[in-house]
Amino acid sequence: MALSVAQCRAARALLGWSMADLADAAGTSVITVKRFEGGEPLRPTSVERLSDALINAGIDFIAAGESSPDGGEGVRLTSPSFGA
């Protein structure tokens, strides 16, 4: 499942992360996060880095049609896979 802009923003909000926090966790630049959240296309590897950073922080992505009350895409906070 590809990370959507809405999921990225929602995931950052759940984590209380700024764009800089996500950029640091993903090993990318703040400009990359701003471009993505602004709807600009990124290389698939850049999107994967953003997605992986959010997953490692405890985010579970819900694709459209997956089990959720309304069947829409979204995010869910789970336990982070790194030591806190």
UniProtKB/TrEMBL annotation:
<dbReference type="Pfam" id="PF01381">
    <property type="entry name" value="HTH_3"/>
</dbReference>
<protein>
    <submittedName>
        <fullName>Multiprotein-bridging factor 1 family protein</fullName>
    </submittedName>
</protein>
<feature type="domain" description="HTH cro/C1-type">
    <location>
        <begin position="9"/>
        <end position="54"/>
    </location>
</feature>
<feature type="region of interest" description="Disordered">
    <location>
        <begin position="65"/>
        <end position="84"/>
    </location>
</feature>
<dbReference type="InterPro" id="IPR010982">
    <property type="entry name" value="Lambda_DNA-bd_dom_sf"/>
</dbReference>
<dbReference type="InterPro" id="IPR001387">
    <property type="entry name" value="Cro/C1-type_HTH"/>
</dbReference>
